[in-house]
Every structure is written in structure tokens, then in C-alpha cells.
Backbone:
């Protein structure tokens, strides 16, 4: 394809994207297709001859859109948001055009260097301690972009595992060879931690102990300390704790300051998973929720959830980068370069080898919106969640099941069984006007309402509530 055709194709696509975005409210948020819907719509083999781009444009509505769940619709209230903004889309275009694979500094210096600076910008925005910032820590700590929070959970767990194995070997007790140490390692997280935390334990082959949370769903220091002491008495080796700030179920916050003290006392790695809530720490009124962050060895949140940076962009900071670099260091001669050791080579700090130029998205978004614009976004969405909360409170048929802190409201039908609540949610989703998902909280079926789209406005909250109330009326609740 030559540049002239690309321009035409690109213009048509930009037009399509803006129309899609502007009119997304009119689309059915959840598709009605059944599994296997797509195969009959396209040929079973690729074309022998190239086709005009117009054919592809025509197929988007016919083939793709019927099977799209519209995550950016203001009627989408499921899971947590997936961030979306035009500046990030434009940055992704440039990233694709440059198309570098920035595994080492020399593989594309600007790819590495912009990421280092952007991670410092972002770290300052959420007021991370200096030890996490490259300049302030004189290169001891620093940030990097990962694909997802799940990768950050696994990567930090693996790094903590290496740290503890080394420690045990250097302070060798009789009979403690590597296999014995590995078999005794135990990690901890709250029973509200994201499933990727438990999965990180499975992938790394270590035990994961899920600590029971208190009645407001926080993991507390005492409960953690008790579990660690009990496990030590059994001969196990505690090595890693994940504190969740903003749980997936209800946006609950572990008591980081208490947990941090326990980790420091017990010599255990503390990782903070703030996948969703981390973005809100750019606003001072939420920052008390990260008290205790000074104890953390690593901290992660997803700008791709709530900070207008399109997927994928998960920000991970490590207090001592050397630990991660040394943990997984494989150094074939072909990857060395004249500036080796003078600056980060990100290949040492991630699971994949290749990496895209994702910091462009951060740069564009932070510059176009500025701190104030991003704060406005977080505050606006939180306000909408409180509007929904008030509607739940006013209707005696429903009850809130967790405090509303940010953009998530969890509720259920009062005095109804889990099965009845499940049927109720199925009926709501079945009508296709809004989309919500459920969760389970201490054996109770709950319904989650998240403010997701950047376009969500008060009228969409009112629309969603009317839909919920209509279904309840229809079911005779
Ligand atoms: N951690 C928490 C607290 C989450 O809420 C989520 C997803 O919602 C994740 C981790 C996983 O995020 P990712 O899709 O970036 O792996």
C-alpha cells in the first residue's frame, strides 16, 4: 500500500472511529451473537489476490461490530473501565509506525529513555516515595511499563522468590538446599486479591496463603502477622505479600501501613497491587489510602484502566531495580551494546523479550490533559458513582454491600436469595441496554456497577437506574 492510499484508508478509518465513538450510546452494549458466529461470515481461506481497502471497511459493520462488547459505551458498567482517549489512540498509531522493539537501549534509545522519564512523571503524579523514582533514587529504583497488572504480580513474585532463595542460601541452615527452600516458600494476599495473584503463585510453583479480611474487606496487619508466624512455626518460609489497594470485587483497601510494618519486621517483599485505584492517587483526597507505601518493595497500577491511556499500559515501580535485573539475567553477546550498563535495558525487567513504544501514550495523555484534566476525570467518575449510590439508597428493595470509595457501587436485592439476585442480573443483561457483572462476597451474590466510559454522564446513571428499577418492577420485586 502506498502513502497516498494509506492516507485515504487512514482518513476513512479515523472518520469511522470518531463516528463509532460519538454514536456508541445508540449501540446495544452487549452483543447477541452465539459462539462461532464469525466463521461463516468470512471465507475459510485467505484471498489469493489482494483486495481494495474499501472491502475491509465495509466488513467492519458486517463481521466485527455484531460481536463487539462495547466497553467504551456509557451503558457499560461491568468489570472495571478500560481507558480510552484520542491522544492515546494517536500515540499508538505513532508507536506502530515507528515499530521498534525496545528490548535494549540501542534497540531504540528514545523508546527506553521516554519510558524512564514518563515513569518518573507518573510516579510524581501519584506521589510515590523517592525510592521508586529513577532520578530521585539515583537509579537504584525506577519504573517500567508492563503489559498488565497480572504480569506485574508474577514478575515481582518471581523476583521476591529469587531474593529469598539467595538469602536462605547465604544464611544456610543445615539441609536447606535450593529444592528444599523452594518447597517451603509461602506468599500471602488478601482473600479479596485479584485471581491473577493466586495464579502467580501457581505459575511460580509456590504456596499462596489467602488471608481472611475483616468486615470491611481489608487485610489487617494482625491477621497477616498471625499467618506468617504460624507458617514459620511449621518450617515454611514466608517471602512475599501482595497488598491490594482497590480490590476487584468491591474496591476495598488493605491496611497498607499495618501490612508494611509486618513485612518489614518479617523480612518479606511487599508488593502493592493498585491496578484500578492507583490512578485515583493523583487526587490528594484519595492518597491517604496509600499510607504505608514507603514500606513497599514494588508498586503497580494500570493507567490502562482509569487514566485515559488505552490498553496496554501497566505501570510498575521497583525500589531496588538491581534485584529484578539480577534475578533473570541472561546476557547473550548479540544483545550487548557499546553503552551497556550506562542505562536501563528493559529486557531484564519483564517476562517478554520484545516491547512496544508504550510510553508515547503516557506522554501524549499527560501533556494533552495535564494533571488537572486527569484529576477532573477521576473526580467526575467518582461523583457519578455517588449519584448511583444515592439511587440505590433511596429504593427500599435494594441494599449497598460495600462502601463506595471510587467509581464502583456494589449492591443487591435486599432479602432475596443469591439465585434470585442472579436471575435479576441475567434479566438486566438480557435486555442489552446496560451491562453489569456479578461477584461473590462472603457467600453473598452481589451486583457491581462501575462507571467505565469517559462519556458516562448523569443521564446515563439515571438511565441505568431506570433500567434496573424497570426489571425489578417486571419481576414483581
Ligand atoms: N489486580 C486488580 C486489583 C484488578 O482489579 C485487576 C483487574 O481488574 C487485575 C489485577 C488484573 O489486571 P490486568 O488485566 O492488567 O492483568
Residues:
Amino acid at each position: 500500500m502506498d502513502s497516498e492510499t494509506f492516507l485515504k484508508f487512514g482518513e476513512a478509518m479515523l472518520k469511522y472511529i470518531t463516528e463509532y465513538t460519538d454514536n456508541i450510546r445508540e449501540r446495544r452494549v452487549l452483543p447477541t451473537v452465539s459462539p462461532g458466529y464469525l466463521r461463516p461470515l468470512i471465507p475459510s481461506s485467505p484471498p489469493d489476490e489482494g483486495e481494495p481497502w474499501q472491502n475491509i471497511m465495509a466488513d467492519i459493520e458486517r463481521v466485527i461490530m455484531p460481536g463487539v462488547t462495547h466497553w467504551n459505551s456509557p451503558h457499560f458498567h461491568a468489570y472495571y473501565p478500560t481507558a480510552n482517549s484520542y491522544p492515546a489512540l494517536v500515540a499508538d498509531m505513532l508507536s506502530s509506525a515507528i515499530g521498534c522493539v525496545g528490548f535494549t537501549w540501542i534497540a531504540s534509545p528514545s523508546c527506553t529513555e521516554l519510558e524512564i522519564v514518563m515513569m518518573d512523571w507518573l510516579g510524581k503524579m501519584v506521589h510515590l516515595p523517592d525510592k521508586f523514582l529513577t532520578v530521585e533514587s539515583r537509579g537504584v529504583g525506577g519504573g517500567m511499563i508492563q503489559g498488565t497488572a497480572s504480569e506485574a504480580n508474577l514478575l515481582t513474585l518471581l523476583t521476591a522468590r529469587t531474593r529469598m532463595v539467595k538469602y536462605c542460601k547465604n544464611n544456610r541452615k543445615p539441609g536447606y538446599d535450593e529444592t528444599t527452600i523452594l518447597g517451603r516458600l509461602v506468599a500471602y494476599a488478601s482473600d479479596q486479591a485479584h485471581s491473577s495473584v493466586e495464579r502467580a503463585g501457581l505459575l511460580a510453583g509456590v504456596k499462596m496463603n489467602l488471608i481472611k479480611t475483616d468486615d470491611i474487606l481489608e487485610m489487617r496487619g494482625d491477621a497477616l502477622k498471625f499467618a506468617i508466624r504460624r507458617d514459620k512455626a511449621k518450617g515454611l518460609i514466608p517471602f512475599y505479600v501482595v497488598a491490594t489497594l482497590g480490590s476487584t470485587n468491591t474496591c476495598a483497601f488493605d491496611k497498607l501501613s499495618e501490612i508494611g510494618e509486618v513485612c518489614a519486621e518479617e523480612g518479606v517483599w511487599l508488593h502493592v497491587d493498585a491496578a484500578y485505584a492507583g490512578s485515583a492517587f493523583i487526587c490528594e483526597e484519595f492518597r491517604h489510602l496509600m499510607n504505608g507505601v514507603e514500606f513497599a518493595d514494588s508498586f503497580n497500577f494500570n493507567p490502562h484502566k482509569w487514566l485515559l491511556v488505552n490498553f496496554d499500559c501497566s505501570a510498575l515501580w521497583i525500589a531496588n531495580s538491581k534485584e529484578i535485573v539480577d534475578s533473570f539475567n541472561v546476557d547473550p553477546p548479540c544483545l550487548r551494546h557499546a553503552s551497556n550498563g550506562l542505562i536501563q535495558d528493559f529486557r531484564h525487567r519483564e517476562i517478554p523479550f520484545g516491547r512496544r513504544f508504550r510510553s508515547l501514550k503516557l506522554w501524549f495523555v499527560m501533556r494533552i490533559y495535564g494533571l488537572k484534566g486527569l484529576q477532573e476525570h477521576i473526580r467526575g467518575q467518582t461523583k457519578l458513582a455517588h449519584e448511583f449510590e444515592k439511587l440505590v439508597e433511596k429504593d427500599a428493595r435494594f441494599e449497598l454491600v460495600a462502601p463506595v470509595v471510587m467509581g464502583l457501587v456494589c449492591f443487591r436485592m435486599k432479602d432475596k436469595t443469591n439465585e434470585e439476585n442472579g436471575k435479576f442480573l441475567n434479566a438486566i443483561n438480557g435486555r442489552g441496554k446496560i451491562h453489569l457483572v456479578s461477584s461473590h462476597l462472603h457467600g453473598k451474590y452481589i451486583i457491581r456497577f462501575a462507571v467505565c466510559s469517559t462519556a458516562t454522564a448523569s443521564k446515563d446513571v439515571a438511565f441505568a437506574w431506570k433500567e434496573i428499577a424497570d426489571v425489578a418492577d417486571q419481576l414483581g420485586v
About this structure: The first strand starts at residue 142 and ends at 146. Residues 359-394 form the longest helix (36 residues). The mean pLDDT is 94.
